[in-house]
């Protein structure tokens, strides 16, 4: 769930964002895979839509059993989008199960970057046995994620031992940093710090980012100037009806992870 404060902050941020995950533009998610589907079969299917640079089929870190989803990275975004469009407009079945294919274009990637307020942590020395699910399970106790945790992987899909955690508040990221830096995660001691900004201007968690967060929080709670920008009665009713987790009308469609 995402707080009204969080959504208001996204509304105020610039739409000019730095995209630093170029591979995502050429990658599709393939889900609802049968347990009988292996890498060779999926590659044979995927290559029909364009040259495949990498195919990753994650395995459960404890059982070693393949998950029911995979990631396919193409040489170009156009190939990735083509695969997703074909799958959306026709039935593609493998071993009797219809697969699901989704693609994030530049617009969605920009939206993901917009969701991040600067409460972004970098986790290093991550055990090779730790995957994205384990990272999420370990860090979700401190607050809501702005976007799902991301683990850096090499060209073979293996972990590089570095993960990024982006929260929707600085209270959450500060708590996570204080509790997990130099702590054990699986068989390694991890180090946690605020992530470097992609433009090289320093680390996230800066006073500038925190000031924007505080100003927006003050406006929404009616403290100080700008109280008029607090959520409307319609927003309040929507939030009440949804158990306190609704997204205001002006923010609808911005966060693909709001209902998780």
Automatic annotation (TrEMBL):
Pfam families: RRM_1. SMART domains: RRM. Keywords: RNA-binding. Residues 26-106, 119-197 form the RRM domain. It comes from the Eukaryota. GO terms for molecular function: RNA binding. The keyword Hydrolase does not apply. InterPro entries: Nucleotide-bd_a/b_plait_sf, RBD_domain_sf, RRM_dom, SF3B4_spliceosome_assoc. One of its GO terms (cellular component) is nucleolus. Residues 197-238 are annotated as: Disordered. GO terms for biological process: positive regulation of mRNA splicing, via spliceosome. Residues 197-220 have a biased composition (Basic and acidic residues). This is RRM domain-containing protein.
């Amino acid at each position: 769930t995402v707080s009204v404060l969080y959504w208001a902050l996204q509304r105020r941020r610039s739409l000019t964002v730095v995209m630093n995950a170029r591979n995502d533009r050429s990658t599709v998610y393939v889900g609802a895979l049968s347990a009988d589907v292996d890498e060779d079969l999926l590659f044979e299917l995927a290559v029909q839509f364009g040259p495949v640079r990498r195919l990753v089929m994650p395995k459960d870190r404890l059982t070693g059993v393949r998950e029911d989803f995979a990631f396919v990275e193409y040489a170009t975004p156009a190939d990735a989008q083509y695969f997703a469009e074909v799958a959306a407009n026709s039935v593609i079945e493998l071993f009797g199960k219809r697969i699901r294919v989704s693609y994030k274009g530049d617009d969605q990637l920009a939206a993901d970057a917009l969701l991040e307020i600067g409460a972004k942590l970098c986790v290093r020395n991550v055990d090779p046995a730790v995957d994205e699910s384990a990272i999420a399970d370990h860090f979700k106790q401190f607050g809501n994620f702005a976007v799902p945790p991301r683990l850096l992987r090499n060209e073979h899909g293996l972990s590089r031992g570095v993960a990024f955690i982006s929260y929707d508040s600085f209270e959450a990221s500060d708590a996570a940093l204080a509790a997990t830096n130099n702590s054990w995660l699986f068989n390694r001691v991890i180090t946690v710090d605020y992530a470097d900004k992609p433009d090289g201007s320093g680390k996230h968690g800066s006073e500038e980012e925190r000031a924007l967060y505080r100003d927006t929080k003050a406006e929404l709670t009616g403290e100080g100037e700008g109280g008029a920008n607090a959520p409307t009665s319609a927003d309040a009713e929507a939030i009440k009806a949804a158990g306190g987790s609704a997204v205001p009308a002006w923010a609808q469609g911005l966060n693909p992870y709001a209902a998780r």
